Amino acid sequence: MMEALPPTCSIISISKKTQLKLSSHSTKLYDQSDGDIEIIEKVKFVKGRQRNYMIDSKYITALRMERQHLNKPATEAEYNALYRDTSPGQNVYWCGFGDPPSLTFRADFNDMEYNRERQRNRTLVKGRFQGGNLGWIESSDMELFACMCRKPLDRPTESQQTLMDVIEREGPLNIQSMKEMTGMLVKEITPILHRLQEAFLIYEDQFDGAWDRGWYQFAEMFPDVNFRRYTKIEALKIVLKRFAYRNVLFNVDMAKSFYKMPVKDVKTAVAELLCEGEIMEIEGGYLLKTDYNLLQNTVVEFQKNIFVLHRNDFLVKSHEYDLKEKYKHHEYDILQYILIDGEFHGAVLGHFKNGPYIIEDVVLDSGIKNEKEEIIDAVYRVNNRKKSPVKRYMGREEMPL
Predict the structure, then answer these.
(1) What is the pTM of this model?
(2) What is the DSSP letter of 141?
């Protein structure tokens, strides 16, 4: 069911349009919001019931896989556009801490080294964007994400003000220098820095993999960023259109899961995009209006494939609200998720380690008919076959290598 829209909304979902029955088999839809009557579309009835805006899910999936460049890896220019649309980017879950962000399987080059260089020249910059989580965005997008994610700090505590003052006076500083200048403990300093990051008052300059990083005043590093350039909802609408383009079909839960924004804000942004005719509601969620037209007139090639994706992957984070509950295990961690023909149908379970993971089991949804060997091979594309052998497959013990 579509979320309630403001009374001034001029774009009406199919369930809200005025219908004028022409015959027992067809109808025309009219938009009467401004007193003008305009024929929107002719749709047919099936067994006396109106057919909603529907698109075969396999075409949506095929277009998503194409736009994710999981069918055909991206060139550098394509990758730059993909990275922007799926930002904030993150490194590989658990084992990638300190590494550059990576869009696994999506580039026809080593994107980790590419992004390492983009960090070095500060094309990619670090911040706390998704509910305070660390991520990397293009520096040109800092204003947009600051307007969307900033948590203002109107009344800093004495300790927060002390750190801001010393960074303003002596910065850039690393944490050890702050400790020496203020007498505060590292365990006191670190959460304060995180909160100041969330307020976009300071900036952590991580341009390489070194641990000894400098902290600056945010305004010193980004003097042109205007926190009033967009309202939070205006900024969210911009990134939601990017999100819609790369996911093709999305819902409120997906957007909330990825951006960690309050559900009220997501619903408001979605309602405004509906009003403005940027997106439309179909069965299962929302998509760009241009994509609806595209899918009505274009045949998208569907490819069969299997990918095992880490927990920071864009598609995983988009569906995390559902996946983490679906594959939750009372004893094992969810190490990775299994994408089969563009849909999530399984998970790799086990234990994280600072080294090769311990893979206890590989589980799949009932009814999945892929051969065990091709599933196991996909698991070993991202896990070492000898150091992380699969112990079980669907609960049954595997033969040793």
Answers:
(1) 0.85
(2) G
- In the listed set 179, 200, 221, which residue is the last one of a domain according to the structure? 221
| Residue with more model confidence, 41 or 361 | 361
Nearest 5°: CA angle at 300, between 299 and 303?
135
Q: How far apart are CA 336 and CA 379, in angstroms?
A: 9
Q: What is the DSSP-derived secondary structure letter of residue 399?
A: P
As to burial, measured by CB atoms within 10 angstroms (0-12 exposed, 13-18 middle, 19+ buried), residue 8 is exposed
Total of domains in the chain = 4
218-222: Cβ within 8 A, 24+ apart = 220/171, 222/139, 222/142, 222/143, 222/146
pLDDT of residue 350 exceeding 70, the answer is yes
- On whether residue 144 sits in a domain, the answer given is no
255 and 275 both lie in a single domain: yes
Is 265 a member of any domain? yes
pLDDT(278) > 70? yes
pLDDT tens digit sequence for 183-194: 999 999 999 999
Taking CA atoms, 155 is separated from 75, 151, 160, 197, 270, in Å, by 47, 12, 9, 15, 32
Q: Give whole-number Cα distances, 157 to 164, 268, 382, in Å.
A: 11, 32, 45
Per the listing, tokens 């007193």 go with 35
Q: For 332-335, which contacts have Cβ atoms below 8 Å and span 24 or more sequence positions?
A: 332/360, 332/361, 335/311, 335/359
- C-alpha to C-alpha distance for 54 and 174, rounded to whole angstroms: 55
Among residues 170, 194, 221, which one ends one of the domains? 221
SS3 43: strand
CA–CA dist 101, 124 (Å, integer): 10
What is the rounded end-to-end Cα distance, in angstroms, of the chain? Answer: 51
Average pLDDT value for the chain = 87
SS3 57: helix
Residue 214 belongs to what domain range? 151-221
